[in-house]
Amino acid sequence: MIAALALGMRFGDKRVFRDVSVDLADGGFLLVTGPNGSGKTTLLRVLAGLTAPSQGEVEGPPRHTVGYLGHDPLVYRELTPLENLTLFGRLYRVPERGERIGMLLERFGLWEVRNDRVSTFSRGMQQRLGLCRVLLHEPRLLLLDEPYNALDAAGAELLDGVFTEPRTWIVATHEPRRVDRLATDRLVFA
Amino acid sequence: MTYFSDVAALARKDLLLELRAKETLPSMILFVLAALTIFHFALPGGTAHKAALGLLWAALIFTALLGLTRAFVAEREQGMFDALVLAPCDRSAIWLGKSIAVFAFIACAEVVALPAFAAFFSGIDGRTVAAVALADVGICTVGTLFGAMAVAGRARELLLPLLFLPMAIPIVVGGVGGYLWFLALYDAVFALLAWAAFEYVVSEV
Amino acid sequence: MRRTFSENRVAALGALAVSLMTAAIALIFFYAPSDADQGFSQRIFYFHVPIALTAYVCFSWGAWKALRVLWKRDERADVESYVAIHQGVVFGALTLVTGSIWARASWGVWWSWGENQLVLFLVLFLFYCAYFMLRFSLEAGRARANMSAVYALFGVVLIPISFLAIRLSQKFIHPVVFNRHGPQMSGSQLLTFSVSLAAMLALFAALYNVELAGKRLDSHLRELRELLT
Question: Are the beta carbons of A74 and B88 separated by less than 8 Å?
Fold first, then answer.
């Protein structure tokens, strides 16, 4: 699904990581762990194709089959959930957009607030909306950066349910207990 | 055709954001009116129409700059460049959508500024209006590209005027002189270049 | 092996630049005839115009390397483009200074808006100084290389557009009063001019290679330091 050989990353004089290789099969689950600031986020950005690595190359699937959720939920704060998802649904050419959006909002408990501005949401609700956005176009490969952040118990359970879907996952977290048993591949950053 | 529906969706998003926030356009209108008022006091009495017209162009460029500085604020503050760059649409559609939105803001500000200029100083002919419209195209296309560059840097708001103003000098020449063909040439050359270059500005890979 | 070759090239270019410059200065001061109208001070023409032409060469070379950054993803081209534009700004500043001195000597003013090339260099100077501001505000990496390259390409297109604009502006700002170049250059003038131009180009090539060697040494050093840690 996604492969990278001997990736290295450097910001100016500061080295973030080097010699990181990834070879994840279809349906695999790559768990990236390590303390804060160890380079997990940078690796995910490199694998998602947002940042060019200093060394090595990434061979991943085409853009429309990838979903990426970073530290920010990547939604416009002054738009409503419905407007945000409609915009990305158009850009990703999601078929039967309205139904799919409705279903996702329902599932993540955001249907009632679909016409409220995102800026009025709590951090946890924004994270739920971020999950809706990233699942909207049924990506085959998902890259999630600290996805449990800010989620309450119910939100975390919803996310547990998401991980049972048959997709390929790359998840970075500093607190891996919750997804440890799902992992087929591991990368540990020091 | 999907290209243009992407462009329309992106431009509509920007217009919607402005409709909610009501920040950029009112600031631009107030700015241009204040600038014209200052020019009244800066110009000696009985100044020729030509001198006032020159100052109008200065006011329009700086007003546009104000709008361009705000153009990518939503994208910058919420990391939305990542989301847009990852979307499977052509990256130049992001540039075109934003350029159209900025054009709309600048045109709205000018709908106020030009009559105000006519009332404060002297009348404007059709040629000037045409020149302003052509100049807006150049300002939006180049300014949007440079705006995307400026927000990536540390200096941000400070950087855009430095990048953009040398590019605006030919626009002022074409506008003040009323050389419509020159403005059209400028638009064609730089819009094409900006369209081709935007991908490299927002995407690393 | 490659290093000694590159060192030799820098040394050879340096020697070439020095000897051509010596020849050019000798020709300018002792061989070229004094101008009938402007007298001795006209000789600054042999510095001013070759420096200006060299600056154009620098900016064009920088844009060519910028194109290679975007097109071929050539990582070395980023530094090469930067160094060429850096040299271009140095030559551009010299163009402004020599032009200003010439204006003072000929017309008693430090600045003349009537001189197209001088005004163009002012615009280019402003534009390319912003290039450095852009570069310094970004972290080193692919994004900076791409954005610098895009800006450098805009610069090389801005040159003819600005030139045209400045020509147009003369029609409504004020008519062209001065025509510096006057009649065709005589044989001795042409020789002096050509040697001076060759000297400036050699100087650019030498400075370009020296600065580039320095930058490369820097990055080698950084890589070595990294290997040690």
Answer: no
